[in-house]
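User: For a reading group we're discussing how well predicted structures match intuition. Take Beta-lactamase. Before you show the prediction, I'll give you the sequence so everyone sees exactly what went in.
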Amino acid sequence: MAMPLFRTFGAVAAALGLFLAPLPTADAFGPVKSVKQQSAEARLLAQFESLAALSDGTVGIAVQDLSTGEEQSLNGDTLFPMASTYKVAVAGKILAMADAGALSLQDQVPLDPAQPARLRSLHDLIDLMLTHSDNDATDALVARAGGPATIHQWVAALGVKGLRVDSDTAHLLYRAMGISPAAGSFRRNVAAALEADSSLRQRDARDLPNIAFTLDPRDTSTPRAMNALLAAIQLGQALKPASTVYLLEMMERCHTGKARLKAMLPPGARIAHKTGSLNGYGGDVGIVTLPDGRMFAVSVFVMKDYKGRATRDSIMAHAARAAYDYFLFAPARRTA
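Assistant: Thanks. Here is the predicted 3D structure of Beta-lactamase, as structure tokens, for the group to look at:
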């Protein structure tokens, strides 16, 4: 059957309209990146790739400009064990409770449940946890916070996805070492396990990874999720201003990881950070301040690595310096 002429004309006109209608502006698809900016991004990601090639394991690097929100990453959405980097979340939850009036940082709590008379202030425990990565102090704080689940809930309430807290430090380390603990102290259980199993002693002595542990989703974070937590803290979305300053100044005094994120930054560069270490794993996460006051978050994790601590540390150091130079010297960006 022949189509009426007016319907044919209408169909043609409609089709032409699709071609003749004005195209959406570039801003409809987001800010346009200059050739220089695209080149700078490509160069940064190429540096990340070359650093990852130094390890025979998996490397995750994520950086985020805290002014514009710009992110660049390699394996930024891959889950990695957090190890002691989770202690940032522990401190955040305790300080949030202080902000709410649920506790005081001068409250005294036992450092070791087996020695209830050995009391320390919450302030002292946070200091020990963040500046020296003390595990006993951490687990005393986890207990005072109400357990790992309450810390996880606090992180989730900030809108951070891809980071989960499931254990205190002792039980995290039991899983990392492949130990089924008996009754008694952490140190006694570890000593007994190492004495009974020569393979555990060898893995510990040779700094070899426990692959099964690295595949366990518990107590993990993606690099981007860790940056999201750091950003929420720095931008005042997690804590009151005084508590934000308190936490970040404490992290600036971190004594561990001198060969990691801070190692290749210019002399005097400010960095508030927290490290984490396990066999075959290394991590360092923090906030770096540029000379003009701008800040960026950086999280670097290395897992399943057999090359050794020096290689892992070098990857973290070079990644932080590459990010520092990128944010300092790359062309000006437009915010989304």
